[in-house]
Amino acid sequence: MSIINKAIEWGTKKSPWIIHFNAGACNGCDIETVDSLTPRYDLERVGTLKQGSPRHADVLVCTGAVTLQTRDRLIQIYQQMSNPKFVIAVGTCACTGGIFKDCYCVTGGIDSVIPVDVYLPGCAVRPEQLISAVDKLLATLDQDQKKKETTTSEPGR
Amino acid sequence: MNLEDEIAGKLCEKFPFMTDKIYVQKEKRIFTKPLSRDEFEKTIRYVHDELGFYRACHVVGTDDGDSIGLLYILSNKDSILLILRESVPKTNTEVTSISDIYPSIVLHERELVDLFGVMVKGLPDGPRYPLPDGWPDGNYPMRKEWNPKNFNKETMTYQQPQETEAQKNG
Amino acid sequence: MVESDNFGDNRIAVPIGPQHPSLDEPGCFDITLEGEKVVDAVIGVGYNHRGLEKVCESKTYIQDLYIIERVCGICSHAHSTAFCMGIEELSGLTIPPRAAYIRVIVAELERLHSHLLWLGVACHEIGFDTMFMFTWRNREKVLDILAVLGGNRVNYGVNTIGGVRRDLDETLTSQILKTMEMLEEEIKYYVELAHTESTLISRLAGVGKLSKEDVIHYGAVGPVARAAGIEDDIRVKEPYGAYKEIPVHMITDTNADVYGRTVVRILEMQESINIIRYCLKNIPDGAISVKAPRKIPAGEVIIRVEAPRGEDIHFIRSNGTDIPDRVRVRAPTEANWHGMKHMLEGGYLADVPITIAAIDPCYSCTDRAIQLRSEKDTRVLDWKELRQYGINFYKKQGIDISTLSAGR
Fold first, then answer.
1. What is the pTM of this model?
2. C326–B104 C-beta distance less than 8 A
3. Do C265 and C362 fall into the same domain?
4. Interhelix angle for C383-395 vs C97-126, to 10°?
5. ipTM of model
């Protein structure tokens, strides 16, 4: 691995920057995700910063069952993120579509559109679960690094 | 006489056709049976201008079999809801928008267009709501005959189920 | 992401969304600028349209309760209360008085957590991040109570058809009273901040103005309407459940702008604490639910409740079976979107984030759609920069929110 790649990996492991996208959620998981950045849970102490632009983020934290409207935008955001990038599906709706799976405007969980690295079931997911998910994700970084070497341009199933 | 009966009385006095159509369901709820297009247009203007129903809370669409039912929910300062009903056949769903009287109804009328296939004339220009871009024309999800199981979300196409041999033979 | 397109006649279209970090909810705003001023705004939401009303027509009432609760994660109790009330009315059920009081307690706790959430988000939009952290830290205490009472911090599922699922005990009652005492002290500080802190007032006053006449004309509800002096609160105008017995003081203001909406929400938090204390003192003993029939008699009902964001209307039509014929949810934000366009017009680009946040928009309650206009020559600005732009704009005029202390 080149020095640049090693530096990127070190930066990602030590300070993963996250971006949050609501793909069609009820906001329950969203407010719990934002909650994880507030004083009681404080994800920032592990170096996690919430970013505004996909281009600055390592981890895409995605909530909600994917609606037909957000499908293309979700793919766009995923493509705008640079490698290495990871996706956490937060909430039962994001994992499988949840109780909205049969709705005519819902395609399903996040993995119906982009590849997912961590599935967090719950309705809504607690902030402690999210912190645990980020922690587990970083622990598997080495193993997943090679798989993320190439950009995925097609939606995966 | 309570306020609801008073309002119903005024409407009956102004419009004789209301006598058989208006009924007070309970406190703060006045309903009407389906009004004709002409009756509706006269009533809506009158209740806004003279009876103080300043807010249109919503318009609910319902699938009533061969027709689409429209329930316009109006509110006054005493929080009494007046529900004016209209019914349009599915073969000719043309209605006129009331957004010139109640601007906030625009979004809800757009919903009737998208979800029930009601042709609302006089809507101001604007984006569709709430269905996504690329939704196939002629597909109105809230109509009872539209079955989400026949809708392919990948290709955004609706396929009528094929008649089986047994069904063809009766 | 914000992209701007120069039309060449001093007007720039700035489509914002659907992913923007401040609100964490998808929505699009096409804003046309002339210099610094907003001259036109097209509001677009719809990314959260799932089509759940169609699903409700193929599931039983009790299954639908779980779906309706998840229309919105912040006002979930309001939606489930309205739905249960509708079914109870159609079946002729009267829920036990104790259940009615518990529903009110949870509703007011929800209002507290929602307004604290909003206050935090609003402060974040204007750059007062310390306050955002403090309000959300205080909010945790309310969520702790809801977690013990309902079993979950969000989507607590306290309601069932015929009453409530969980009861209060002495330990929980004393925990609630202790939390109310703590929150009351905190809210005193927010009130003082809102009334005396000139920096905050300069940033919020005159912004997002929607006059009383316009509020009436555009049909806004909730704190947006009350901030313009309109007496519109379902708990007072059409009391339901235990609100028929509980004194509720309606909070109104005359500043029909973001500042007014802030003051109304802060004072409503104080009122919610009073209501919760009243309920805990006067809650009757007894059962918490009655048995509900599986098949609901045919009929139509329209129910209104006061959600944290305003009037929430549910329409239910039953056909005598255990599956509803039609369920329609008209959430409060749907009534407020139209007025938003007029709030933005005439204001500065710097005020766009706080104006949008001030109606407390709940996108998932709204289920709406829009299109991004296509751009020719694009300049990219992300939302963080737009928010920072607003903060810097006001700093140049001597209004620096970062100099404010967070009190404690």
1. 0.89
2. no
3. no
4. 70
5. 0.93
